[in-house]
Amino acid sequence: MARDILIIACGALAREITALKRANGWSEVDVQCLPAELHNRPERIVPAVREQIGAHRSEYESIFVAYADCGTGGMLDGLLREAGIERLPGAHCYEFFAGSATFAELQNGEPGTFYLTDFLVRHFDRLVTRGLGLDRHPELAGEYFRNYRRLVYLSQSPCAEAETRARQIAQSMGLEFELRVTGYGELGVRLNALVSSHREREWPH
Q1: In b/e form, how buried is each residue of 40-67, taking b as 16+ CB within 10 angstroms?
Q2: CA distances from 3 to 27, 56, 63, 171 (A)
Q3: At 40, is the pLDDT very low, low, confident or very high (cuts 50, 70, 90)?
Q4: pTM for the full predicted model
Q5: Cβ neighbours of residue 83 under 8 Å, at least 6 residues apart?
Q6: Which residues contact 69 (CB under 8 A, 6 or more apart)?
Q7: Could you please report the per-residue DSSP string of 99-121?
Q8: pLDDT, tens digit, for every residue of 117-169?
């Protein structure tokens, strides 16, 4: 007998999806996370998602992909259209956390904006400092970030420690700092809709 719902997710969303699942009692939802480091090699996202769909398609009634486009240049959408599977809206997690309208406002206000989420604040050193080789070649920072003017921290679960760390990152990059508390944004909206739709099919009125 097929299980209910599988969410194939970016590892950068693992904490948020787990929190939503716990808070809402989504016992019918299973989560399979792919490494967050795939964002540094977006050409590997589509093959990784394809592999997970192939491995689990027959085991679940519904599959949802918790990725935005994430630098795949529309290739992820091509795969998901063929598979009949939906994903999160937008080009990246910044857009679905902030909401499309707010993100457009931020970008129009200052195109040279560097964004952080809770995940990126926690893992900045691993994914950015070491991921871009700045621990070995700090002189490259000026080249990488020379077009940025502002850092916006899109916070899902505000806390003083994370905000302090985000401010330190902005200062180290020489950027103005702005905090926007987004909560789970479209991630929460879409996953709630997914589970509600599944439950309605299971228990029609």
Answers
A1: eebeebbebbeebbeeeeeebebbbbbb
A2: 11, 10, 10, 48
A3: confident
A4: 0.90
A5: 53, 57, 63
A6: 76, 77, 90, 91, 92
A7: -HHHHHHHHHH-SSEEEE-HHHH
A8: 999 999 999 989 998 899 999 999 989 999 999 999 999 999 999 999 999 99
**Identity of the amino acid at 199:** R
Structure tokens at 71: 């630098």
63: alpha, beta or left, given left = phi > 0 and alpha = psi -120 to 50? beta
Closest CA to 147 of 172, 114, 102: 114
Whether the CB-CB separation of 45 and 77 falls below 8 Å is answered with: no
